[in-house]
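From the shared-data thread, chain only:
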Amino acid sequence: MYRQHFGLRELPFGITPDTTYFFTSAHSQEALNTLLVAARSGEGFIKITGEVGTGKTLLCRKFLATIGDGFVTAYIPNPYLEPRTLMLALADELEVPLERDVDQHQMLKSITHKLLDYARDGKQVILCLDEAQAIPIESLEALRLLTNLETEKRKLLQIVLFGQPELNRHLEVDSIRQLAQRITFHYHMGALSRDDLDFYLAHRLRVAGYAGARLFSQGAVKRLYSASKGIPRLVNIIAHKSLMLAYGEGRQQVENKHVAMAAKDTVGRSDAGALPGVRWPWLAAAAGVLMAAGGVAWAVLK
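Structure, as tokens:
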């Protein structure tokens, strides 16, 4: 695509969470520090919230990679599960051996024994649940009951909930008020600031191998912030498309106009005159020139 053109080892603005691209802004570092302090203090429930695209999953993976050898971690990315299935998922993560038709009582007993074994070995067990706003109420209650398990010193299981702001409303339900009261550490993730955005772009480009001068002009960064509102996922999507557009023109720098067109394609309607399957007409023309010269395959620019 555009990697060789800009001197990159890899694409810098993917939306798949990759901890090598974790950006330590003031907010993301505060969130990570909150998680680390809370985990090491042995609290039962910890909550991280943020709007869609603010980097909760990336934070979760960074936390799991940072926590250290004294912890055993379990990760459930999609907890929209009824209580029994959620418990089975936890048992699977903790490598708890279970019979095929195990009943609820025996399953919980086996999980408890495993947690006690870890405690005797000096290990703390942390369960991270992504997209926690989707957890059914009855499954949240089952998790609360698991956090009742403790030694004289600490909880046998700590649970970190990562979710959208809807999670807060979810926890206001009267039937699980006891769980809400047990959340002693929480953090809300916000968007990048305008100043953060400049450093964020430079950081991701540097990790991807870029060694040149400023790749996004000041005007491009200003337009990118306006279009994305500092939401990292939108920043990545628009920045990626902007690089494609600059590449299609043979430019070495992303300008305001590239970001404007990329943003329109991302958050608005495509141009009325777009060719079938192509959202950027003039980029399609550039692709034709490149193809004629034996360059980029047409499919890449579709």
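The first strand starts at residue 45 and ends at 50.
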